[in-house]
Ribosomal protein S18 acetylase RimI
Amino acid sequence: MTSDPGGPGRRVAEVRRVRPRDAARMRALRLEMLADAPLAFLETLADAAARPHAEFAARVAYTSTGTDTAQFVADPGGRFVGHAGGTTIPAEPGLTVIYAVYVTPTWRGSGLLAELVEAVAQWSRACGRPELMLEVVVGNDRAYRAYQRLGFVDTGVRVPHPTIPALTELQMRRPA
């Protein structure tokens, strides 16, 4: 898959599953994600920056194959500009949970979010999981509206944020 925001100087990014050799670029994107949206992810920028490169490399290698968890990136040929992950939960074998969705600010509005989510959806379907679920911090209206445009529906389920007790997340689902 590729994204093309259009206009003069059109840019294209390949959306694909991570590869073991992507570890350094994935680490750079993760640090950008945490700096740009500190409440959206489950660790702090300081914690991620302190993690050794070998940990990033091991995580990328693990998510580059298999059916339990996967990471997809938007690769324009240099620095990654987007990410979406998918994972399973034992309680719902037909479900893929989408996590760590991010598009770098200069690529927002380009259609890249839809392509990243679709990459996770295709992987989910190929693994026999027909449903997607994600969680959004209550009050993150930009993300909420973006996911609605992609067909996600608010289920009415509210859960505590896993790391910040003052925040609540809402669950959204759609077919894969």
User: Anything to note?
Assistant: The CA atoms of residues 74 and 80 lie 6 Å apart. The two ends are 17 Å apart (CA to CA). DSSP finds five helices and eight strands in the chain.
